[in-house]
Amino acid sequence: MPELPEVETVVRSVRPHLVGKRIVAADLTSPHVTPGNRGALAKRLVGRTIQSVTRRGKFIQIALDAGFLTVHLGMTGKLLISGAVETHTYGVFTLDDGVLLYHDPRQFGTIEWSPQVHPRVARLGPEPLEITLEEFRARLKRKTKMKSLLLNQTFLAGVGNIYADESLFAAGIHPLASAEKLSKVRAEKLWAAIRGILAHSIELGGSSISDYVDAEGKKGWFQVEHRVYGRDGEACAQCGGPIRKTLVAQRGTHFCPVCQKR
DNA sequence: GACGATGTTGGCAC
DNA sequence: GGTGCCAACATCGT
User: Fold this and answer.
1) Residue nearest to nucleotide C6 (CA to C1')
2) CATH class of the domain comprising A133-255
3) Residue ranges of the alpha helices (H) in chain A?
4) Could you tell me the pTM of the whole model?
5) Which of A22, A66, A82, A126: disulfide with A131, CB 3.0–4.6 Å?
6) Nucleic acid strand C within 7 Å of A141 CB
7) What is the three-state SS of A75-92?
């Protein structure tokens, strides 16, 4: 589900319900989502006050008056500020005013506490909406395929499968194109495409592919703007030829063989 | 019912 | 530092 625009949307929707609230109870029930001693984690959280909720890459950082609660939604994670406890609800945070639920059928997501900024967050590359063109170009100097590089969170933080495919299409770059051989002009096109697409998606509340919703249960609408992702066999919006789907870096990769050159 | 695919990441072998 | 492959897990479509 969640790439940068979806996580940003979740953060914006959950923030006003959390900041300033105190955690009075935490019920954690998945060894995958909350590895280690869950009882000890719950105990550590009780009594803490939430100071801020921010996004870094695809991570949600909840700053407490002692340490950080870092949430990654994995493929199917959801944070909800209301609703019932269901089969795949693996976190229930009772607040002095309200509740925060974590729901994650596949349990690829994680909720972890750390005294400082989480090491997984510390390792992330720059934010795509903040990086300068100069720095972006400098970071392209790697012997790898563009699709793989865009998925690498140490290159840029927050781009996933959907936005990698959409950005490459918008810039007219083949997913297998070599990163280090990208021309100056095409590098700038890609830099601008990533920014434009992520920003536009945030405006539309992200992409709701299967059942993605924000913390208040609202769907996003950027999926209707997808030009290649999930459009295998459909006509390309630019040339009318068929969009193709292949496998790159073990991930389904959608592109237009006519509009995207290596 | 079996099989393959799904928005993510990490570990392993090479 | 790369790539390729597999792993975690549940659900849905063919």
Assistant:
1) A250
2) mainly alpha
3) 4-18, 38-45, 119-122, 133-139, 146-151, 161-171, 184-203
4) 0.97
5) A126
6) no
7) CCCEEECCCCCCCCEEEE
Greatest extent of chain A over all pairs of C-alpha atoms, in Å:
59
Return per-residue pLDDT of chain A as tens, 262 residues.
Answer: 699 999 999 999 999 999 999 999 999 999 999 999 999 999 999 999 999 999 999 999 999 999 999 999 999 999 999 999 999 999 999 999 999 999 999 999 999 999 999 999 999 999 999 999 999 999 999 989 999 999 999 999 999 999 999 999 999 999 999 999 999 999 999 999 999 999 999 999 999 887 788 889 999 999 999 999 999 999 999 999 999 999 998 999 999 999 998 8
Q: Element (H or E) spanning A94, and its range? A: strand A89-95
Residue pointed to by tokens 């509340």 = A205
How big is chain A, counted in residues?
262
Owner of token pair 């590098």? A187
Neighbours of A98 (CB within 10 A): 12
* 3-class secondary structure, A161: helix
**Protein CB footprint (7 Å) on chain C nucleotides:** 1-6, 8-12
The domain limits of chain A are 4-122, 133-255
* A4-122 CATH pick, 3.40.630.30, 2.60.120.20, 3.20.190.10, 3.40.50.920: 3.20.190.10
Residue A194 CA and nucleotide C9 C1' are separated, in Å, by 30
Please, are residues A71 and A104 in contact by the beta-carbon 8 Å criterion?
no
